Amino acid sequence: MSETVDIRIHHDFDETALQQAITGFAALFKTEEEKASKVLRSAPVVIRKNVTPDVAEKFRTALQKLNIGVTLEQAASETVAEPAPAPVADNNAAGDVAPSNDGSAVIESDKDHPGYAFRIEGRPDFSFLTVTVPANQKIKVEASAMATMDTHLEMKTRMRGGLGRLMTGESIFINEFTAAGGPGEIGIAPAAPGDMGHVFLNDDTIYLQNSAFVAAGPEVEVESKWQGLTKGFFSGESLFLIRAKGQGDLWFNTYGAMIEIDVKGDYVVDTGNIVAFTDGLDYKVSKVGGYKSLFFSGEGFVCRFSGEGKVWIQTRGVDAFLSWLHPYRPAPKKG
């Protein structure tokens, strides 16, 4: 085998199997299903050129788990023009996305990323974030989420919202880490098992569910926002959202895998599956059906979004999992 190879994919699916492959392909490379569909429906096609053999094997392992056929071919010479789609990349422009050793996707920033260098491993089940903080710069991290760090990083705890709002739950605690005297690396592990996402805010605003915040750059303002009694109580979630706005990196996590949805018009999401959404989307909380459906269908309240923007959802909900687990709890002994 030559020093570099081209990766060609092919398939022989019926429409049902093809749709499953499209969904898995989109999740693996963190891209939209529409883009994944165009790539797979054009197969056989080269999706990567001039890749080293070890990286190519990682791609092959990950793609074969989706029942997508993979052929590694000797890299074509530069004078040979071969039609191929652009490499599938992370739609958050965070950097290159490549399968890790176990076949799961890794998000890693590239040299052109305007924020901090970072790497997300272990996704989508047990995501772990590693960030390189430049010398004398800061990073904001969810309280108790720091797992590892270089010895010269200094930590201070900040309370966003103030003591006056502490009793209402509107205050949030954030640890600030400063790389004193030189660049330093910090490892961050969220409490919930699941996926992790990244966006680079450019004077943008994103709203997060109360437990979704992981970390942010120093110029990103992180604060709590009152949902209102009706939205908060009936959604079953916190009365407050976390509002992140400004310029810089923002990382957030889910319980389960994460899916990014482009909303144009109206869209409905169960309140337990919402992770984040962009400013510009309005929302209201309502029942799926009538009160009979509320109590007997297993469905509760939903969030009805309207406008144009993005919504990030999680494929599992903590409350739904606890309800499923409840019948299996040990029964108390009598007497």
Please give the alpha-carbon distance between the first and last residues.
Answer: 72 Å
Question: What is the quaternary state of this protein?
Answer: single chain
Overall strand count? 20
Second CATH tier, the architecture of the largest domain: 4-Layer Sandwich
What name is given to the CATH topology of the largest domain?
A: Double-stranded beta-helix
> Could you give a short account of the major beta sheet?
11 strands, antiparallel
Q: Residue-averaged pLDDT, rounded? A: 78
SS element count, helices: 6
Globally, the shape reads globular
Q: Topology as H/E string?
A: EHHEHEEEEEEEEEEEEEHEEEEHEH
Task: Give a short overview.
This protein has 335 residues and is α+β, with helices and mostly antiparallel strands. It has helices at residues 15-29, 33-41, 53-64, 229-235, 291-296, 318-325; strands at 5-10, 45-51, 69-74, 97-99, 105-108, 117-121, 128-133, 138-142, 146-149, 153-160, 172-179, 184-188, 196-208, 213-216, 220-226, 240-253, 258-270, 274-278, 281-287, 301-314.
